[in-house]
Specification:
Number of strands: 5
CATH architecture: 2-Layer Sandwich
Distance between the termini: 17 Å
Helix content: 25-40%
Strand content: 15-25%
CATH superfamily: YlxR-like
Shape: globular
Bound molecules: zinc ion
CATH class: Alpha Beta
């Protein structure tokens, strides 16, 4: 408290809900041909696709399928693994609104 550090927080857009959020709240996927990888360390090369934790921990399969198409099944399996490995997902208390609310700045 008291000290404002102006630290640049890079925002990424979730492909599922299209909200822009800090990287820390997102999971990164990369695609290698037909293989989808979950890039927890955010170090893999290539084009990243981002999914926020809200969407990752939600069970909105339909939206995931729309976002990932043929890779949706792989993505869902990777998400299930990731959530099992990191159970502290920081899911909020039931708010499902993704408009307004959090303006970063
Ligand atoms: Zn999302």
């Amino acid at each position: 408290m008291g000290r404002t550090t102006t630290k640049h927080v890079p925002l990424r857009r979730c492909v599922v809900c299209r909200a822009s959020k800090p990287q820390a709240e997102m999971l990164r996927f990369t695609r290698d041909g037909d293989v989808v990888r979950l890039d927890l360390a955010r170090r893999l090369g290539g084009r990243g696709t981002w999914v926020c934790r809200d969407c990752a921990s939600g069970d909105d399969e339909k939206r995931l399928r729309q976002a990932f198409k043929g890779q949706a099944q792989q993505v869902m399996e990777l998400l299930a693994e990731a959530l099992a490995a990191h159970p502290h997902g920081g899911t909020g208390a039931g708010t499902n609104e993704n408009n307004g609310g959090m303006n970063v700045r």
